[in-house]
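subagent[fold] <- orchestrator: predict structure for attached chain, return tokens only, no commentary.
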Amino acid sequence: MKIKKYLISILGLNAKDLQKKPKIYDALYLLHSSQKRLLKKFIEENLDSSKKITILDVGCGNRPYEDLFTPYAKRYIGNDFNGRPGVDIISSAENIDLPNESCDVVLLLQTLEHVNDPLKVLIETQRLLTKGGRVFITIPACFCYHPGIDKYIPGKDAMNPIYPDYWRWTQAGIRKLINENFSYEKIDIQSIGGFFQCFGLQFAFLLVESLKNVNKYLCYLVMFTIVPLINLASICLDKIFGRWNKLWSPYTVFLGYAVVLKK
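subagent[fold] -> orchestrator:
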């Protein structure tokens, strides 16, 4: 058991490590790498290290991106529905115990698909945001059903998930939700992944998860040989057929979207 934990540690196979430092052999690399790249772009374009700010991470999990905000943060607040390490405020995302206009940046990273009422969460986000503050959202579009479960077993139902998975969006759907309910000064939507990355990720993820229940060594072999090839091929094919990946072109398919809102 100690050897297994050591290998997991040095190979960076912990969930937090794979989000913080995406690895090409990660079955979710195409999502993790795109999300981190867009998050770094958001920071570069919107934050100034000379001005310390308050950042709220809604649905923070294990706070994988906190280090990116360290040069800018006066306070980094983690919110989630459970009391795991790193959660400062235990509550639903619809009702967070903080004063009005108390947060300069609000992060909703792969969170909105899991909440009971996305509109109420966005209303709560606007309440908490300072004037001129920013919201950074990532949401899924073409992505597998992923309720919170301890272990995925192919063909088995997750009868009592730790948390649900409710919602998916299109680029038009998220813009409609925001435009009809809010008056943000700026709305910017960017795609995550493209046609080939959508199917590459699903294939790599289900392949790895299925093999975990067959033979862990075979699973590791596939992770370090086949999964990197799937990831690289998916990225290359999306670049070659870039015309299929224009945000507002009909028949496009994306892993998800990154949305920036300015109050």
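orchestrator: received. Logging for downstream: The chain has one domain: 2-195+246-262. The two ends are 50 Å apart (CA to CA).
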